[in-house]
Amino acid sequence: MRRVISLLCLLLAGVLSAAALAGHQVDQLLREPEPVREIAGALPEDEAFSEAVSQMLVEQTVSSLPDALGALVPGGLEHLVGPVVDQVLNNERTIAAWDEVLQTTRQDYTAQLEGIFARGTTGDVRELDLSVELTPVTDAMTAPLREQAESVLQLLPGLDAEDVEIPTPEFVVDIEAATDEGADPYTWATAAAASQHWMLFAGAAAVLAALGLAIGPRRTRWIALAVGALTAGALGLWIATTAASPDLTHSEGMPQAAAALLEHVQTRFTEWAQPSWWIFTGVCGFLAVMGVLAAVAVPRVQPRPVDWRA
Questions:
Q1: Over 207-250, what HEC string results?
Q2: Better-scored residue on pLDDT, 278 or 184
Q3: What would the DSSP string read from start to end of 115-131?
Q4: DSSP E strand boundaries for the chain
Q5: CA pair distance 146, 167, nearest whole angstrom
């Protein structure tokens, strides 16, 4: 009986240790500003994303300016607006606006998942979709354009610059967070809610591991340790190659800026999440090897010879 309990304790400890690491990462992503900033904070510096956003801003800004202004600009309004957009993409105002977008999106999505957990779900996977409101970024980028346009508009006779308004382009990117159409929104919401208790999972794993080693007789405790470590290592390897390295597919008709955003986030998320799982898997592999070696090193109990003459 002690052998079975020892094995079950160490198996459960392996599963809970993997759950603790997963919960820790999910809790960081949803409730702390730094991980999201590390993953997507440098997005304005991404060439593909900056080109897509710049093109979008140039098109919308030019369409809002009077046609008469184009006659005063050699090469057309694009030559006036384009360089200004390129200069403002990475300035302090735009970077601050982008950080605001990131933190607002993180908080909104956390509230979205907590709402699903509280009220239930219809089962529609689209409940997990994520909306990124980029209007604060476009507002920060077009502010210098408005200032420059006002100075240029004053050159047009008979035109009051105050009568021409350059609107802030509204730009929202809808992201399909779940690439698997069979994903259950309530499972995601439950995982998000449970991630707050990752320290309890880690503590329970440590207690169960100590208990399993304490009650396991001789060689059995080390065999149980090897089995539990192998179980945890297998889970770590599976998560490292799946959830920690997601494939964010691009749907047809997705705007170029959204596609660039997804590609950037996919790369940086993998760089952030995967190393912890490689380390976890390596530690589990080491413990499994140590368990096997310890089990081999422990001498077998030799039965006492029976004295038939007694």
A1: HHHHHHHHHCCCHHHHHHHHHHHHHHHHHHHHHHHCCCCCCCCC
A2: 278
A3: HHHHH-----GGGG-EE
A4: 130-133, 172-175
A5: 9
8 Å CB contact between 130 and 100: no
Which of the four pLDDT bands, split at 50, 70 and 90, describes residue 72?
A: very low
The pTM of the whole model exceeds 0.90: no
pLDDT, tens digit, 9 for 90 and up, residues 236-271: 999 999 989 887 766 666 667 667 777 888 889 999
Q: Which two tokens stand for residue 205?
A: 């794993």
CA–CA distance, 6 with 234 (Å, rounded to integer): 20
Residues 198 and 191: their CA atoms lie apart, in Å, by: 11
- CA–CA separation, 175 vs 40, rounded Å? 14
Q: Can you tell me the distance from the alpha carbon of 53 to that of 89, in angstroms, rounded to the nearest whole number?
A: 9
Which residues touch 180 (CB under 8 Å, ≥6 apart)?
125
The SS3 assignment for 204 reads: helix
Task: Please state, in angstroms and rounded to a whole number, the distance separating the CA atoms of residues 239 and 149.
Answer: 52
Long-range interactions of 302-305: CB distance < 8 A, separation 24+: none
Rounded CA separation 303/253 (Å): 75
